[in-house]
Amino acid sequence: MNLIEREVITITRSRIHLKPFQLGRVSYQAVETTPYGIEMINAPSQWSEAQGNDVVVAVLDTGCDLTHPDLRDRIIGGRNFTSTDSNDYSDSHYHGTHVAGTIAASLNGVGVVGVAPKVKLLILKVLDANGSGSYDSLINAIQYAISWRGPNQEKVRVISMSLGGPNDVPALHDAIKRAVNSGILVVCASGNSGDGSDRTDETTYPGYYNEVVSVGAVDQNQKLAPFSNTNEEIDFVAPGVNVLSTYPGNRLATLSGTSMATPHVSGAAAILIQKAEKESGRTLTEPEIYDLLRENTVSIGLSRNAQGNGLLYLQGGQQSNSGQSKKKKKRTLYI
């Protein structure tokens, strides 16, 4: 099946709505494949030391295929915020399953492998089968992620949100500030309203909030995707064009969008958290996690409004080969 859809992420005062930018070929695959994006960010170089073991990433999206062979062992829990049945957080769309696979698909010899193949996923369904949801659902899911505790008192360390729209909603902003203040790294898609020029700014929320990690998209040749937003709040770019990942029904699919770039950064954060906390013997703060990401980038020769700190590239203990001064994130804390 070959389908092409333009991604239109729209937002109103009462609803959020999501359509993926481009859905490519959907297929079955028995032999495990490492998607090009996983290689591009150099994730496999880290797996002998860290695979995101026991780090919890909350994925706020359309849910997840809970029986997919690449994902079923990665899911630690979940909740549905779109209906009265809070226990049904399965994916009736496909976007959330795809995002989850890029973060965490298991290294199991079949399908695909994700950035952090031993990370734990907390699946928080905030968008329904049509990719639509309310702000209340999104805000409640963020608050749930902050207070959630796992069976061994695990806490959410990263929130991954591949969604957004044009309006600044203060209650959503406040919820994100609370998450950041509680030590959670919030990673968001920058948006798909780009016009191919870094001389014009495109803003999408929550990706434009200063407190979040805003992620733009590049293609397999490290060229900025023409749909990727550019503005002063971009923090990193990651692979987001023709990204192969998990799809409901034990299948794989390629999708494109800043939605697909975002989970590369979320998975990388999990690896860096595991490595650094093992070495230091303490829990990292949110600014420290952000700084680790900054240290693991390389410039691809674009303006800061296009690439932020640069292309995510896990160094494997080496120094960044960028040589450029890094963009320091300002933190606006919630009181």
Description of the structure:
With 335 residues, this protein is an alpha/beta fold. The protein has one domain: Rossmann fold (3-Layer(aba) Sandwich), CATH 3.40.50.200. Helix content is 23%, strand content 21%. It contains seven helices and 15 strands. It has a seven-stranded parallel sheet, with helices on both faces. It has a three-stranded antiparallel sheet with strand order 1-2-7. The protein has a three-stranded antiparallel sheet with strand order 3-13-12. Strand 5 (75-80), helix 2 and strand 6 form a beta-alpha-beta unit. The radius of gyration is 18 Å and the shape is globular. The termini are far apart.
CATH class: Alpha Beta
Structural class: alpha/beta
State mean pLDDT (0 to 100 scale).
89
Kindly provide the radius of gyration, computed on alpha-carbon positions and rounded to a whole number of angstroms: 18 Å
H/I helix tally? 7
Our count of domains comes out at 1
Q: Got a strand count? A: 15
Give the strand order of the largest sheet, numbering strands 1, 2, ... along the chain: 5-6-4-8-9-10-11
Please state the second-level CATH architecture. 3-Layer(aba) Sandwich
Element order: H for helix, E for strand: EEEHEEHEEHEHEEEEEHHEHE
> Main sheet?
7 strands, parallel
State the share of residues found in helices, binned by percent.
10-25%
